[in-house]
Each structure stands twice: as C-alpha cells, then as structure tokens.
TrEMBL record, chain A:
Highest rank taxon of the organism: Eukaryota
GO terms, biological process: intracellular protein transport; vesicle-mediated transport
Name of the protein in its database record: AP-1 complex subunit mu-2
Subcellular location: Cytoplasmic vesicle, Clathrin-coated vesicle membrane; Golgi apparatus
Protein topology in the membrane: Peripheral membrane protein
PANTHER family membership: AP COMPLEX SUBUNIT MU
Keywords: Cytoplasmic vesicle, Golgi apparatus, Membrane, Protein transport, Transport
Keyword hit for Cytoplasm: no
InterPro entries named in the record: Adaptor_comp_med_subunit (IPR050431), AP2_Mu_C_sf (IPR036168), AP_mu_sigma_su (IPR022775), Clathrin_mu (IPR001392), Clathrin_mu_CS (IPR018240), Longin-like_dom_sf (IPR011012), MHD (IPR028565)
Keyword flag Membrane: yes
From TrEMBL, chain B:
Entry keywords, A to Z: Cytoplasmic vesicle, Golgi apparatus, Membrane, Phosphoprotein, Protein transport, Transport
GO cellular component, one term: clathrin-coated vesicle membrane
Subcellular locations according to the entry: Cytoplasmic vesicle, Clathrin-coated vesicle membrane; Golgi apparatus
AP-3 complex subunit beta C-terminal domain segment(s): 715-851
Chain spans, region Disordered: 659-710
InterPro entries associated with the record: AP3_beta (IPR026740), AP3B1/2_C (IPR056314), AP3B_C (IPR029390), AP_beta (IPR026739), ARM-like (IPR011989), ARM-type_fold (IPR016024), Clathrin/coatomer_adapt-like_N (IPR002553)
Similarity-based family: Belongs to the adaptor complexes large subunit family.
Name of the featured protein: AP-3 complex subunit beta
Keyword Cytoplasm set for record: no
Organism: Oryzias sinensis (Chinese medaka)
Amino acid sequence: MSASAIFVLDLKGKVLICRNYKGDVDMAEIDHFIPLLMQQEEEGMICPVITRGTVHFMWIKHSNLYLVATTNKNSNASLVYSFLYKLVEVFTEYFKELEEESIQDNFVVVYELLDELMDFGFPQTTDSKILQEYITQEGTKLEVTKTKVPTTVTNAVSWRSEGIKYKKNEVFIDVIESINVLVNANGSVMSSDIVGSIKLKTMLSGMPELRLGLNDRVLFSLTGRDKGKTVMMEDVKFHQCVRLSRFDSDRTISFIPPDGESELMSYRINTHVKPLIWIESVIEKFSHSRVEIMVKAKGQFKKQSVANNVEIRVPVPSDADSPKFKTSTGSAKYVPEKDLVLWTIKSFPGGKEFLMRAHFGLPSVEKDELEVFFLMSIDFFVRYMKIIEKSGYQALPWVRYITQSGDYQLRTNA
Amino acid sequence: MKEETRPCVIPGCFSARRHDDLKEMLDSNKDSLKLEAMKRIVAMIARGKNASDLFPAVVKNVACKNIEVKKLVYVYLVRYAEEQQDLALLSISTFQRGLKDPNQLIRASALRVLSSIRVTIIVPIMMLAIKEAASDMSPYVRKTAAHAIPKLYSLDPEQKDQLIEVIEKLLADKTTLVAGSVVMAFEEVCPERIDLIHKNYRKLCNLLIDVEEWGQVVIINMLTRYARTQFLNPNINVSRVQNWVYSLFRAVSLPIEQSHDAALIYTAIRKILICCLTHVHVSCFSEVQYVVLQNVATMTIKRRGMFEPYLKSFYIRSTDPTQIKILKLEVLTNLANETNISTILREFQTYIKSMDKDFVAATIQAIGRCATNIGEVRDTCLNGLVQLLSNRDELVVAESVVVIKKLLQMQPEKHSDIIKHMAKLTDNIQVPMARASILWLIGEYCEHVPKIAPDVLRKMAKSFTNEEDIVKLQIINLAAKLYLTNSKQTKLLTQYVLNLAKYDQNYDIRDRARFIRQLIVPTEKSGALSKYAKKLFLALKPAPVLESPFKDRDHFQLGSLSHLLNAKAGGYQELPDWPEAAPDPSVRNVEVKESVRAVGTVTYRDTGALWGLQGNSDLCFSSKIFTFLEEISYGIYFRALQVCGGLCSALTPAHCHLPSSESDSASGSESGSEDSRSGSESDESKEASESEEEEEEDLKTRKKKEKPLKKPVQESERYIVLINSSQQREGEAGFLCTNDPQFRMNSCRSAETTIAPSSALKSYELLHRITGEGLSVEYCFSRQPFIPDANMVAVQVHFTNNSTSDTKSLHMEDVKLQSGMRVKEFPEIELLPAGETATAVMGIDFCDSTQTANFQLCTHTRKFFVSIQPPVGELMRPFFMTENEFKKEQGQLMGMNEITEKLTLDVKCRNEHAIVQKVTTAANLSRVPCGSDKECRFAGRTVTSSSLVLVTVATKDQGAAQLTVNCEKMVIGTMLVKDILLALTQ
C-alpha cells in the first residue's frame, strides 16, 4: 500500500536503522539516496520525492536524521509523508528527542516500534499513548498490562481506557492561536487569518463527558444574541472523540476526552486583523558602499497590553558586511547565515514606538519582506466547560489563551 | 560476564568469541541473561551487522516463556528466516503452539511473525493459520489475519482463491479494527472482485467513521473505485444528489445555505477546499504542503472557479521554501482571469524584488503566461517586462528577454520599438539564453527593424568567437535571414560569419554553417532547395503556447505518488469511468432486519467520515481529502454523494430517518420506513400490511373521517378516533404507546390540563393564495401529541381552495431536512373542491431545534416549495410537576443552564392570569401550582429529547419582573427567553 521499507539515515547517509516490510525493493537501493539528494541540492531543486529507476524515495528530514520510505508501487503520497511524521511523533514521545543518539541508544525499542507501527507496508495503530501501553522499555511492565492492550485498541471509545483515576480532577484548556498577516508596501492588509487550536490536558477520573462552549457566531445567530463578540470559524476540525451529531444540532461540543494531552479541535478564522505592530522602514544609500536601514516599529494595541518577545527580522543582501546597530530599545544582531538582521524586543508595550538603525557596508541594496513575531492574545474565547461524570466529582477547568508568533510579514519598498 | 559491558564495536577478530558469549547467554537458564543477549543481537541486526551464525542458538529460545525475549526472538526470526530456511522450520511448531495461546497478543504476534517468514515451504501452514485466525474471537487477531493475507499472496499467488474466501469472510466482520485491514487485503489481493463488496458496502460506510485513520484512507480509496463502477455519473444526474450534499454538510458541521440547485453542490465542494487551504496556509510540514499544492495546482487548471475566491491564500511569503513558492506561483497563474489579473500582477511585481533568483525567474515566466492567456493585459505585461529589461540584475533581464520574445511572437508588428530596445541590450547582457533570444527576435522580425538588424549582426560577427554555442547558432540564423532579406548590406558579413563557423570547435555549429551556406548562397551546384530558402527561414512561426506544466497531470489520481511524479508508478490503476447504466442497486441489499436500523440512524455519521473531515490527525487529513478531491478533478461532485445515494437508495423516501430510540425494535423501525413510503400517518407493521388492498381501504376510510374535520378544535376528537382505530388493530400505535410511557402520561395529562384554547393557536402562512394560484395553505401547531410518533410535533395544515377549479391529489414531496429531523407526511388529499377547505395533520421531529423543514407541496398540476419553521415554544410539550419537584429540578439546572432576564411587564399583563395566558401562548408549557402569587411557574419537556424546560416569572412592584428559564438545552433556553420576553412586554 504505501512503503516497502523504512530507513533512518544520518546526515551522511549511513543507515542507522532500517526495517524491510515487503521485500520487493532491494535494501541496497538506499545507498543511492544521498548522492541523488546531493545532486538535487546542487541544482537547487529539492523535491520530497526522489526517483531512481522504479524505486521512489519519499523522505523527510528531522533534526540530523533523514527518514526515508522506499516504494516501487503507486502509493498514496501524502499518506506516506503522514506516516513518516507520525513516526517522528511516536519516537519523540518515547525518547523525548529524536536524533542520532536516541536511535542508537534505543535500537530495540525502535525496532519493536517499527514492527508495530507498520505491517507489510500498511500503517497500523500509531497512537503513541496506546503503543506505550504495550511497548515499553522495561520488560517487567509488560506482564501487567499485556492483556489490556487489545481492549483499548478495540474499544468503542478507542481513545480512552477505562478505570483512570486522579486524586485531583482537572482539565487544562489551552487556546493557542497564531495570526498570519501579510501587509503590502503601502500599508494595506492583503491577507490575514488566524489559525488556532484548542489543546486539552485532561486529568479526570473515569469516563467523563465534557461540554465546551465557544463564542461561535453560528450558535449566537441561532439564538439571536448579541453578535458583538463572536467569531466565524471557517474551517473546523475535531478530534475523533467529539460527537458531531451534537455539534450538528445545537453546536455544543460534547465529548469524552482522551486522557492526557490531546488536540481537541483546530480552526481557522478569516478576519480582518489590524496589524498589531506597525513597521515603517527607510533605506538611505550613501554612495555605493554604504547603506543605512532605519526601521520604526509602533505598537498599535491597547496601552495596557504588552507583546512579549517581539522579533523583527529585516532581510539584508547576502553580501552585507560590517554591520553597526543602534536601537532605542531591545537588541539587534546580524545573522549572516540567514541574511537578516534580528531585532529583539523583550517586551513591547502598546502605543509605544521604537527605532532601530542598521548600518552596512557595500551591499547591493535590495529588500524583501519584514517579518515580525510576537505573542499577544485576541478575541476567540471559551465560554464554559462542563464536566459530567457518573460519580459526580468536582473538577476544575483551567483556561489559558496564547497567541503564538504567527507569520506576520510586512512588505517594504526597496 | 564482564564482557557484556564491552562496547559494541569490537575489532573483527573478537567477534567470533563475542558471539560465543552470546550463545552462552542464550543457553543459560536466566531470562535476564537471555534478554540481554537478545537485545544485543537485535541491536546488531539494526545496525546491519550479520548475526545469522547465531540462528540455532536463537531459534531454541522461541519457546521461551518470557514475552520480552520471545518478541525479540521473533524480530530475529523475521530477519533471518529466509536465509536459513531449514533451521527456521524448527521454530514452526512453536508458532503453531503460539497460535493457540490464550493470550490474544501472543496469538496475534505468532501469526504476524509466521506470516512474515518468507519461506515457501510453510505456505500450507500459513494458510491454515490464517483461516483459523480469521475466525478468532479477538478482533485483534482477526486484524492480524487480514494483514497476513497479502503477505501470503505475495509469497504464493496460487493461493488466491482460498485467500479470497478468507477475505470474504473477514469482510463480513463488524468490528472497526478489522475493517481497515481487510479492505487493504482486498485491494492487494483481489481488487477486481468488486462483487464481494456489494453485501458489505453499507456496513463499511457505517463503520468508516470509527475506523482508525490509516484504515479510513484505504476504505475511502476502495469506495471511490466502487462508486465509479456501481453508480451513475452524478454530473448527469444531479437532482438526486443535492439532498445528500446537504445532509453531508450538516454531518460535517459546516454551515451551509440551503438552496435548490446545483450551486449548492459547488458551495459544498468549496467548503472542503477551504479545509484544503488550511494546509496551504499553515506550513506545518513542507512536504505535506508540497503535495497539497501540487494537487491544488492540478485542480486549478480544470476548475478555476473553485479556488478563485481564495486567491489570497496563495500569496507567497518570503519564508516559504523555493519549491513551495514556485508551486504557489503556478496556482496563482492558473487562477488568473480578466477580473483578478490586476491584483495578481501587482503581487507578481512584489515577487520580482525577491532575492530568491529561481523564484524571480519563475515569476517572470508566470507573467508571460498570464499575458498569453489574458489578451487584455498583454500590453501591460509587456510594458512591465520591458521595464524589467533595465533591471540591474542580469538574471531578471535575461528571463524577461526570453519571455518577451515569446510574447512578441504573437503580434510583432506592433512592437518594433521593443525589438529595437532589446537590440541595444546585446551590448550589455551576457546571459547566453537571453542573447540568443534577442538575436532570434531580430532575425525573425528583421523587416521591422531594417536599420538596426545589420548593425547587430556586425557587432555579433565581431564577438562571434567568444560567444556560447547557442548564441553562435542564433548568429548564424540571423546572418542567414538577413542575407535573404537584405543581401546588399549583409552579404559580406554573412560570409564572414559562416567562415568563422566553418572552423568552430563545435560540430553542430560547423554543420549548421555548411547547411546554411548551401541553402542561401546560390551556386551552380545548389539544388532546388535554395529556391525555397526564403520560405524555409522566414516562414510564419506559430506563437508558442505557454502552458501550465500541470496540464497533463490531471489524468493521474490526485494524491497518488504517480500524480506527484507525473509518471506512472508501478501498480498504478486508473480510476474506472462511470458506468453507462447503473448496475443493479439491489445487490447491496442485505437482510433487512440487521441493517436497516443501523443505516437509518448512522447515516449522518458515515457521511461525515466519508468526507474525512473529522480526521483525528492533521496529517492524515490531507491524504484523505485527496481521495475526495480526485472526484472533483474529474468534474464530478463527489463520490461521497454517490456513496450515500447508494446507501440510502433502499430506503425509498429520501428522508425517512428511522426512530433511533433504544426501545424501538427492528420491526418498529422497519415499519417507520414502510410507512413514509405509503404516505400514511398510521403505523402499519409489516405483518399488518400483508394485503395491500386492505391497506388501501383502510386509508380511504380514514380519509373520509378526516375530511369533515375543519376546525382545529375538532382536532383532538380526531386523534381519539385515531387512537381507537389503531388500538383496535392491535398494531403499531399500541406498540408505540406502550413503549413510551412518558408520552402516554403526557397525552393523558394534556387532555386534562391543556390551557391554551384552540382559538389562541397562532396560524402561520405556508402558501399564499396568490402564489398558490388559488390554493392557500396555513399551518398551526395544534399542541396535541402526535400519535404515530411521540417525538414529533403535530402540525395542523389547513388548506383552502379559493380558485374556481378543483384541486386534486394534494400531497407532499421531496422533503429536505437537516440531519436528524424526520417528517411524517400528511395523507394525500385526493380532492379539494373549489371553495372548500380541508385539514390535515403532519408530524415533524425538529430534533429540538428551530431548523426549517422544507418540502414541496404538490397538487395534480403544480408544485410549491414551502417550509415550516417552528417557534421555539412549540418544540416542547407540557409536563406536570409539583412545586417541590419543580424546585428540585430547577436546582439541578443551574449555572450555564439558567438564563435570567429582567423585564418590565406590559401594562395589560400585570395580573397573574394575563401572565399565564401570555406565557402559555408563547410556549407549550403547563403551569406548575405555586403557593406564592408573586411567582408563576411553568414546566414542559422538549419533544425530541424530553429535556426539562422550566420557566419562572417572578413579579415585583410596578410591573418589574424577572424571567428565569432553566433548560439543559441552552439554545432552546435562550430562544425561549427571547420569545417569552417579547410576549410579556408587548
């Protein structure tokens, strides 16, 4: 179906671990992978799928590793990539970090996992929570849980095992949003949207039934309440556990949560976001050999709010040299490997205006887009969270709103 | 034992001895030592070292009791069994024992390993094991059996027939765990045996949503193929499809406007695409983004309209990798049309400033493509490109030259000044391709630039020896063309160039020179061809068509590897075309008893799964979505629609959702569907309707009874009649009544306590006299229990024929409902004479929501689209309780379930009686006895889910009052507050 064999290679192309699932592709083929990749790299056209004869390599790169799936069949390409990323996810859950050392230290578990994750090229149970129940580093644990495994796998509620107990019943809800804004040179917002997700960390006993209320516009227009503070979610996707029928009829989000951390839903809101930080830049050319870039950043949000860890990246030509900076606040440094100036402002209060001057020698002046990364919070909020369990215990929901650094780009005139 | 701790990398001479240790450890009695040894061996295998000499020692341990050791031995066996076939056979008996182990995990892993041993000798044993495991109690083992099938098939294809039997058996399995794996086996072994799917088709649709994500992908894929062979093309046959789209979208919780035409379907698809776009937006993993964009690019060629509104999503960000940028550019170019071209060009202008040179080059080419495709902007584009010619960056200039050349070919006569301008560039520009392009242009259109052309040739002749090969070839071409048109000025130059070329190092150039000399310079020897030299060189050349590189990709299935590569990968299967005539749909019929109910109640779920939108992981989502999008690219609305269409084709009227309450037995639900087909509101069990004649008679008599009923007051009588008649038949009505004690109680009570006088019933217009061409229809909520189905709200429909002619066969058709809603149609009114009125009752289960029920009201001549929307107050029925009960229930419905509003009562309703009157008119509630005269309490239950609705109106001085509504259903509560508020303040 998807992959004939899976390889994990180091940066030089040495095979760290491999698993042959179908045996229809010669395992030696992998030796051609790195040379082919190098060749593509030289041509500047790296493609996530490389073909040599009838063999196709589909690969991803994670830290200092290449994960490669080989196949000679017409497989579902996105499925393979999904699987490879899932592999990374599972390994990361197991070893904290997936890199050369962690693979070498855990050959046996990795091998067992590879065995369990895929059978004859077909992905199987890949939920790391469930896998951890029966593939463990310590053999002793296995005896206790071994018969339980398939019940979780085969349960009607496959994402939660029965008989979970906590002393203190709590739910943590994280609303994580990132704002993507693209502003053109004359200051108008070209496109803006918010991509968000609700992450849960449940520490609840038994089989609780949760209900979550959001300020969803559809719901509010249904009930005819005030439409001021509602949002229109454009593209909502739920975790398997959410009962679609309920959402369907009255738009309540009701579910039995998976234990531990999980992503309950993700959504996209297409709103017109005013750029929270306004950037202006001026480039002055002194003769041919010197250039001065002045960047002005202004916080366009409430005076009480503070944006933390604002990073402003100013791309500069690759041949720039002898940088000199002057900033009214924060610090600026030149990152030659990425050809940009990084201006960091630890805390950026609303309504304030800051300046940075950068001075370079001999660049053939060109400018691209400015990027700003920051943390702020916005208008999507959780209205309530209800927890219902048979035993009727008291549980505490905690809600936190985080706005992550979205991709916030401002184009400037050269 | 100290040697154990030695580092793994050991000089070769020690390795033999080290293996001895390992052997020793494996032979020992201690499990811990064995485990340690096995771990080291597996680590060796993983690093690709040869551990095959340990085979005998390892194989012995296959019988080890310790599971951890056993697992590692299995790992070892799978790796080396092929090399050491004879020895591997030793372990077979252990596996056979493992297959009988009481622990399902061991049974499964024994089977998995056994089937992974690629040794032909054991094929019969494997076959036997698979057969046995296929009927194992544990679904986990059955799943493993399903996985083993393709393994055995690849080992020995001759087993196919037997394996198909096993597949057939496993396909009938009802567990979600097995479904994905067995479909995978089916796809690998016998994809052509589509007949095996028929019986399981509906079941698979139902299970789909619960299958784990990887299995979903496989099943959807298979269902795609199935639909393509079993259903008609929905393009041609849209009418039936729209209902499904609608319900599908309810299912996936995407809000969608209800409409009556095909536009709906497009909207539907667009919604899916938005989801797709999220992947474009969020650069989660650039590989996934890459695949998504490739597919989007292909789709935009054929169906530009779908993506056009989302143009902005494809704007390029400087952080995108080059590959992604170029793909986005491709999409933007494909999306360009007359209306958005100015926006797109402005975007492109920004991109040209980018520092990524490959990307800039691609952008310039994109501009060229836009210019060729959209005639109106050709000049603008050309001007823009000409401006780029003065760009400082040579690459930009070069690329522009190449593109301008292509554009000029379309209308050279208008642009001689551009050609002149470009001729000047030859002095500066060094990029060979660009130089070659300029020279070609000048040569081709030398009559437009008669003065400059010879001069350019002069310069080129001077630098000929230093030019690149492609430039040299073009110089020769230019010389030849000039010689033919303007031989006076250029004869010598041409000869000079040709002489230089004659001694060039490159044989192509020498060849060309020789060939051209023969052709253009007339000598005695020169053949007939030279006469045609001018025609040969200066023939009108067709302008190049700038096409999307994705043009030819759409015949590959979206999302597949072949599509990504734009080449057929091994084992690529074309999607079959839609059949000309629909194959017999009855093949999918299964024994009604076991399936009907499941189908009815789960419909919305499987449709949800079909769309794959509830993907529990972001990643897998994209792979699923492409299986869907596949269909769009072929101009088809959706296989999913078809899947559903087929799914419900057995249940005749589209929306006969079946009762989902637990208490309904299969026969009950069966009669439900039977019923709506016959259009009667009675519940005839299948047994009762054995003879159709009887049934008809029955209907007639009832209709006679109905006709004289004209006033709503009489409605209750009619019900009593109905109750009697149905109870007499000992049939369904009795069955339903007894099944729902709650309902019975209510019905009795409502008989006693209904406060709302029938005159207070508010009528709503369903069809106006004018639009209805004389037929006017009104409806009201009679507030009577709807006998045939307690979960339905009774709607009394009042027909008046104002026209001068009779109206015949009044009935309803084509009911469009939100998912979960059900309708019991009113019986057909055969004749409504002019000037007469008639009344009928229908039942609607609104699912406790104020969604509209849309349907067509049909007469013998016309059809009218009508819809019924209930006020929230009609979604409940009175419920009697004591004050104490009320307080207790209220105590449990606090917090989010309680809504309180302060209000000032209207002057007219400041007494208790008025309040009661107003509230009960607004909502179908019964009053709860109350000690205090300051408070009025009302109680009711919602019709569908029987959730309590408690209303309290506490009056204070001077008309001030407080309204409290407690209801589990927040939406209902909020809406009710609004309605009651309105009633009390006006």
